[in-house]
Design goal:
Blueprint (H helix, E strand, L loop, with lengths): L9 E9 L5 E10 L5 E5 L8 E6 L13 E11 L5 E7 L22
Antiparallel strand pairs: 1-2, 1-4, 2-3, 3-6, 4-5, 5-6
Length: about 120
């Protein structure tokens, strides 16, 4: 079985962050990509809706790029635990947001008055 996929659209990942008790956790899991920009992950730790978790793709040791960057996700929904004690959690990837109230001044925008 591939380290990348257990089934179609499912990848081995490492999830980390702070759980519902505000304790730091790191857990290996499978992340399943959905069709509606929502991903799902099954974790043993308890998470609160709205919390942030970091997900890093697990790479094989033989990979040239063994360092992968953790991606921030927001917990959108937490479902009840299954018979294995894992909760199904819906995640949405966080993306940088521009600040529409922020204005930047560049050199060409500055007018200098010389007396």
């Amino acid at each position: 079985m591939s380290v990348y996929a257990e089934h179609l659209n499912s990848y081995r990942v490492e999830a980390s962050g702070w759980d519902a008790s505000e304790n730091f956790f790191v857990e290996n899991a499978s992340l399943t990509w959905g069709s509606d920009e929502m991903e799902e992950i099954h974790l043993r730790c308890s998470l609160k809706e709205g919390s942030i978790v970091f997900v890093r793709l697990m790479r094989p040791l033989t990979s040239d790029d063994i360092n992968t960057i953790p991606i921030p996700y927001q917990v959108m929904r937490v479902f009840p635990r299954d018979v294995n004690g894992q909760a199904r959690i819906q995640l949405r990837q966080l993306r940088p947001q521009g600040n529409s109230n922020r204005t930047e001044t560049t050199e060409r925008d500055v007018t200098v008055k010389i007396a």
